[in-house]
Structure formats: structure tokens, C-alpha cells
Design brief:
CATH architecture of the domain at 278-388 and 406-493: 3-Layer(aba) Sandwich
Radius of gyration: 27 Å
Low-confidence stretches: 218-223
Number of strands: 13
Distance between the termini: 31 Å
Helix content: 55-70%
Number of helices: 27
Mean pLDDT: 86
CATH topology of the domain at 278-388 and 406-493: Rossmann fold
Strand content: 5-15%
Oligomer: single chain
Largest sheet: 7 strands, mixed
CATH class of the domain at 278-388 and 406-493: Alpha Beta
Structural class: alpha/beta
CATH superfamily of the domain at 278-388 and 406-493: Vaccinia Virus protein VP39
Length: 710
């Protein structure tokens, strides 16, 4: 029994640390917010190598590696070269951001070959460090699995421990507990798992050193200084705004160490003293100040709307404008519950306490899908939702991507009443982003939106590019016909992005990549990925202690990971692109694995039937549309192929002579599948299903040659 308990504990710890590292590295080193799946693959690589390596790798190596990860994430030493200056590790984002096709928030974007080289070298170093940290954990899991009498029972305990680790991590994340406390706790568990007294002393020293380093970082901060919050998605830092003559009072909110939003006092009362100064200092026309407030503008187009929907409510600026405009009934959708809590407590105008404001903590796309058959709105306001953050390491789709697809915008059109208006704000940092947005809206509504720019030098916030369109073609023209000042302002600030000869593809649910100019490998992903793969091939070639790979299980792992990527991405269209979606889907997958193991242990599960049903379920994934599915049916539908693949895996795993090497091969295959996900940037998300079929089929052909067909 103790052997099974040991498997449970180490499996729990490995999964908990996996999620912890993905969260922290993507938060503190922003370039990994764009490369979060590479962190996941480093974890899989380390765990898989640990399971197949013959050499001893004590747990103290993990303690030391995680201590070094703490150093990497907190060390702010500035490195200086001629014409180049950056903070070590955290400054990697500045070094690599020129490789990104799109703008990375608050990065200088200065191209430097030296900087790019240093950035890639540091990225490779962090990838290697994370890999090394998980090798001893994988080694211990593999040894414990080889030691138990019933292989499938041991593997089931491994899955159950991992499932528990995921739920604990998501639970403490929902409660707002800092991931750094999770690292300290994990170092303590590693200390308890180490048996040798001398080695435990070293582990204890590392634990105390980590506490000393992290305590000042996570200690309580006085009210007047920046305050750090951790949400289920991201790190939030709130700091006060005061003493700036032309700026509003309020609060400044950073997301993952980058400027993102303000909680601004834009009430008429707060601007009485500033109004004359602002108008004289910053505005050429006295009329400009009427239209310069991006938050008030929607209500000039549609005064006092009866039914209003705000997507991406953030800290409350859009809701405050709705209150000032006397909107009768306003629904505000915001995906991050912690941002809503901050808005309730800190926004100077307290809009979320008003009776006409109804807050919904939800993904905007998911919410609109659910209410599309029930409600009609006079006005839909889409705030600046471009978060540049992914919800999980299991997808390249960022939190906001599905909001801007043709399918989403068509649904928005259906949500509007006949005189309804969509007011969409976006920060266009590249002309092709504006062109794509303009073209996608045109495709969804059937005619072109009015596009213009609003800037106020920070007086009313950051501003942005406004895309305004009515359900009916003449709606906006009617508004401008009654308001000559507004027409004049738009004429002077109008933008038209449809001027290039380049063919820009539209955003769709199958290709929702807002920040990639065309279907191709993103330069940043390709450059980092290619160098990482070269590093892996070199390392494996010169390693003399690797047993042979179990190729069927290797290919099954690659197919499994590709389909998992696709499932997480597509399930967002039903459940919303939220942290709870990831929790539900992965839980469903793990429960199916446990069910498959149970069937294989209690009575021999039909292998050939499982193979047939696996490919049949893949076909269903392609031909059945996911929109409109009941949530329970959708959860079953998305995860069903994993039941049949788990039955196939159980047979191969049970018959393998070396259980550790078998499971390690499967994890290393997952690394290949993760790298292959980059193909979705060219062929779309649905293409991952076809590739998964090829990988599973190849694995089964190899198995057949070896006589394993049940």
C-alpha cells in the first residue's frame, strides 16, 4: 500500500509543480506568455527523460533546480552592452520581441542581432533548467511504477494523484494564493520525500534560502504602495495615480508586469477644475473634448440605451460611463473574477455597486453564445480586450482570440435589435491588424464599419481605434446626420486600413490568430522551437544511457497531445475560454483514463473495438459542429476519443516489460505533439485532428508488426 501512496504523492507534486512553473514563468518572463506551451513541453521532456534514464537522479537535484528557478524569476540584475541594456531573464522579452510579428506590450522592439542571440540563449537555458527540474520527479515515478505488482493499478494511482494536483492548484489559484507560496510548499514536500539525512540538510538549507528570498516579495504591502493580486489567470499589480495635472485620478493596473488598464475617475465633478487646462493645452478644437472620452463615445451614438452589453468590463471604466449615460439595464462581462473584485473595491466611481449594472464573470464569447436566443441589445460595447495572455499551456489561442472571429461577430449582429450598434475598441499596433479587423467585421455584417481613432494624451485613458457599425446599414448614417459635430470629428480622425495589396485572411473559429499576419509559422515560435529541437537531438545523441523508445506509445503520446490541444481550443467555443474550461476538460480526460484502466483490469477491454471506435470518434469530431451543444453532451463528446485511446494505451502499457520506459516514451511523444501544434498556425486548429489520426495510425501499424493487436 505504501508504494501506491508514494506514487500518489509524487504524481500530485509533479502535476502541481507543472502548473505552477507554467504560471510563474509566463508571468515573470513575459515572452513565455507567448510561448507557454514550450514551458509545458520542457516539463514533459524532463518527466519523460527521468522515466527512461538509467542513471540515478536524486530528488535533491529537483530542489536545487527549483531554487534556481526562483532566482531566475526574482533576479533583476541589469546587463549592459554597447547600445543594449536589459534586465537579466525578465528582460528577455525585450530581446526577443523583434521576432514577434505583432506588438508585445510595453517592449521597445529595437532590433538587435546581439540581443536576439542572447535572448535565445537565455530561453534555451530556462528550457533546460525546467527540464532538469522534472527529471528526478519522473525518475521517482518510474521507479515506483516498476515496483508495484499491478501495473494498471499503479498507473491509475498516478493519474489520480495528477488529477488531485490539478484541482489543488486551481483551487488555490481561485483563492488568490501566490504561486510563490506554492513553490515554498513544494520545496517543503521535496524535503520530506528525501530520506538521506545529509541530503535532507541540503534540501532544508535550500528551503530556508527560498523563504528568505521570497518573503519580502510576497509580504503585505502598505495601501499607498503597489499591491499585488493573483487571479486564476494572471498577476495583477495595483498602484495609485495622483498628482498629474492633465490626468484623471484613480488607479493603474498592471497585468503580468505590463501596463494594461486604469481605474479612472472620469466623472464630471472630478474634471471641473481640469477641463479648461486640458482644453487649452491639448485640444485644437473646443469640440474635440466632447468626443475625446472613449468611454463616453458609445452613448453619443446610442444615448441612454435600454439594454446594454459590455464585453471586457475590466476594472469598471465602461460600466462607469454607462452609469453616467443613464443606461437602463447594463450587463457587464469580465473573464477575470479578481479584476471584478478590484473594480468593486477601488474604482473611484464605484460603478459595480449601481443597481443598473449586472456583472457576469464569464468569457465574453461563451456568454454571448448562451444568451443569443434570449436577448436583444440596443448597444454592445466591446472594450479593449486584447490581453495577449493564453488561458493554459495547452493552447496557442489567447484569451481574446475567439471574440473577433467572423462567427463571433455574426452572433453579435444577431444579438442587436434592428437599430442596435456595435462599438468595438481595439489597439491597432500593426496596419495588417487593423485591416484584418476591418475586413472581418465587414464579412460578418455585410458592409464596412466606420473606423476612427481616439486619443487624449492620457486625459481619458489610452484611447484606441474605434470600429462602429449598426445592424442595419443606414443606422450609423442616421446618427451622424443628426450630429454634425460628431460627423466632423470622425471625418478628421477617420482611418482606413484597406489600402495594402497584401491578401489578409479573415479570423475564423478554426483560425483565430489575431496577432499573426497570415497563415505561417510565427518567427518567434519557429526560431525558439528550432533551436530547442536542435538542442534535444544533440543531447540525446551524446547520451549513452537511454534505453530503446517504445515507438507505439511514443506516437500515441504525440497524437494524444495534439488532440488535447485541439480539444482545449475548440471547447472554449462551448464553455468559454476560461480556467474552469481547462479544469473540466482535463478532468474529463483523466476520468476516462481511469475508466479505461478499470475496464482493462476488471475484464479484458476489447482492443480492436477500441481502435475502431477511436477513429470513428475522430471522424465525428470533424463532421459535427460544436456550437449549440449542451454542456454535458459537449464535455462527453470532446473527451470521448480519450476513452478509446486510453484502452489502447492500457494494453500496450500492461504488456511492456519496463513500465517506466513505456510511460516515459509516451511523455516524450507528447513533446513531439506539442511542437507539431505549430502547424495549426498554417492549416487551422481542426487540422490537428487529422494529424492525430496519422500519429495514432502510425503507432498502431508499428504495434501490428510487433504482434500487439489483441
Amino acid at each position: 500500500m505504501k508504494k501506491y501512496w508514494d506514487i500518489f504523492i509524487i504524481s500530485f507534486l509533479a502535476l502541481f509543480l507543472e502548473l505552477l512553473v507554467i504560471r510563474l514563468v509566463g508571468t515573470e518572463i513575459r515572452i513565455f506568455a507567448y510561448l507557454s506551451n514550450y514551458v509545458l513541453l520542457a516539463v514533459f521532456l524532463g518527466t519523460g527523460l527521468g522515466m527512461i534514464l538509467k542513471k540515478k537522479t536524486p530528488l535533491i537535484y529537483s530542489s536545487f533546480a527549483f531554487f534556481l528557478i526562483i532566482i531566475v524569476l526574482t533576479f533583476k540584475y541589469i546587463i549592459r552592452f554597447p547600445n543594449l541594456e536589459f534586465k537579466l531573464f525578465s528582460g528577455m522579452t525585450e530581446l526577443l520581441s523583434p521576432l514577434s510579428e505583432s506588438y508585445i506590450w510595453l517592449q521597445i522592439g529595437t532590433f538587435s542581432k546581439t540581443g536576439i542571440g542572447i535572448g535565445i540563449f537565455l530561453t534555451l537555458g530556462i528550457f533546460a533548467l525546467i527540464t532538469f527540474a522534472f527529471i528526478p520527479l519522473g525518475k521517482m515515478i518510474g521507479e515506483k511504477l516498476n515496483a508495484v505488482k499491478s501495473p494498471l493499478v499503479g498507473y491509475s494511482v498516478n493519474v489520480a494523484g495528477s488529477l488531485f494536483g490539478m484541482w489543488v492548484f486551481d483551487g488555490v489559484s481561485f483563492m488568490g494564493v501566490s504561486p510563490y507560496f506554492g513553490l515554498i510548499t513544494s520545496l517543503f514536500i521535496l524535503f520530506l520525500l528525501i530520506k538521506e539525512d545529509r541530503v535532507r540538510t541540503y534540501a532544508f538549507i535550500l528551503l530556508i534560502a527560498a523563504v528568505i528570498i521570497l518573503f519580502p516579495k510576497e509580504a503585505y504591502q502598505p495601501y499607498e504602495k503597489p499591491v499585488t493580486f493573483w487571479s486564476p489567470y494572471q498577476k495583477l499589480i495595483l498602484s495609485a495615480i495622483y498628482g498629474i495635472k492633465n490626468k484623471p485620478g484613480g488607479w493603474y493596473l498592471e497585468v503580468n508586469n505590463a501596463g494594461y488598464m486604469g481605474l479612472l475617475d472620469l466623472s464630471e465633478k472630478s474634471f471641473k477644475e481640469k477641463k479648461t487646462y486640458i482644453q487649452e493645452a491639448f485640444w485644437k478644437s473646443p469640440q474635440d473634448i466632447v468626443y475625446a472620452n472613449q468611454y463616453n463615445l458609445p452613448y453619443i451614438f446610442k444615448p441612454a440605451p435600454e439594454n446594454l452589453l459590455i464585453i471586457g468590463g475590466g476594472g469598471g471604466n465602461d460600466a462607469a460611463a454607462a452609469v453616467r449615460a443613464k443606461a437602463k439595464n447594463a450587463e457587464v462581462v469580465e473573464i477575470d473574477p479578481t479584476i471584478i473584485q478590484i473594480g468593486r473595491k477601488y474604482h473611484p466611481e464605484q460603478p459595480y455597486s449601481e443597481n443598473n449594472i449586472h456583472v457576469k464573470v464569464d468569457d465574453g464569447r461563451g456568454y454571448m453564445e448562451r444568451v443569443s436566443r434570449q436577448k436583444k441589445y440596443d448597444l454592445i460595447v466591446m472594450g479593449l480586450a486584447d490581453s495577449h495572455t493564453v488561458s493554459t499551456g495547452l493552447t496557442n489561442v489567447q484569451l481574446d482570440n475567439y471574440l473577433y472571429t467572423v462567427e463571433s461577430l455574426r452572433n453579435i449582429k444577431n444579438l442587436l435589435n434592428n437599430e442596435g450598434i456595435l462599438f468595438l475598441t481595439f489597439e491597432v499596433t500593426r496596419p495588417w491588424i487593423g485591416e484584418r479587423m476591418q475586413l472581418t467585421i465587414t464579412e460578418a455584417f455585410g458592409y464596412q464599419p466606420v473606423v476612427f481613432e481616439v486619443r487624449s494624451d492620457g486625459t481619458y485613458g489610452w484611447g484606441g481605434i474605434m470600429f462602429v457599425i449598426g445592424k442595419e446599414k443606414n443606422t450609423i448614417e442616421k446618427v451622424l446626420g443628426k450630429n454634425s459635430g460628431l460627423r466632423e470629428f470622425i471625418n478628421r480622425t477617420q482611418k482606413n486600413y484597406l489600402v495594402s495589396d497584401a491578401k489578409i485572411n479573415l479570423l475564423t473559429d478554426d483560425w483565430p490568430y489575431v496577432y499573426l499576419d497570415r497563415p505561417r509559422f510565427p518567427t518567434l515560435h519557429f526560431a525558439v522551437g528550432a533551436i530547442v529541437i536542435l538542442f534535444l537531438i544533440t543531447a540525446l545523441r551524446f547520451s549513452g544511457n537511454l534505453p530503446s523508445i517504445n515507438w507505439p506509445l511514443f506516437l500515441f503520446g504525440a497524437g494524444f497531445m495534439l488532440y488535447e490541444f485541439r480539444t482545449i481550443s475548440k471547447s472554449s467555443l462551448v464553455f468559454g475560454n476560461t480556467w474552469t474550461t481547462n479544469l473540466l476538460i482535463i478532468t474529463g480526460v483523466m476520468l476516462f483514463i481511469l475508466l479505461a484502466n478499470f475496464l482493462s483490469v476488471v475484464k479484458k477491454a476489447p482492443y480492436k473495438l477500441a481502435v475502431f471506435l477511436l477513429f470513428a470518434s475522430f471522424i465525428l469530431q470533424v463532421i459535427i459542429p460544436v456550437q449549440g451543444l449542451n454542456k454535458i453532451i459537449a464535455l462527453f463528446f470532446f473527451t470521448l476519443p480519450h476513452l478509446f485511446s486510453a484502452v489502447i494505451f492500457a494494453k500496450h502499457y500492461n504488456e511492456a516489460l519496463d513500465k517506466s520506459s513505456a510511460l516515459g516514451s509516451n511523455l516524450l511523444g507528447s513533446v513531439l505533439g506539442g511542437f507539431l501544434e505549430i502547424l495549426s498556425y498554417i492549416f487551422g486548429i481542426q487540422s490537428l485532428v487529422y494529424l492525430a489520426v496519422i500519429l495514432y495510425g502510425s503507432g498502431l501499424l508499428i504495434a501490428r508488426r510487433r504482434g500487439i493487436m489483441g
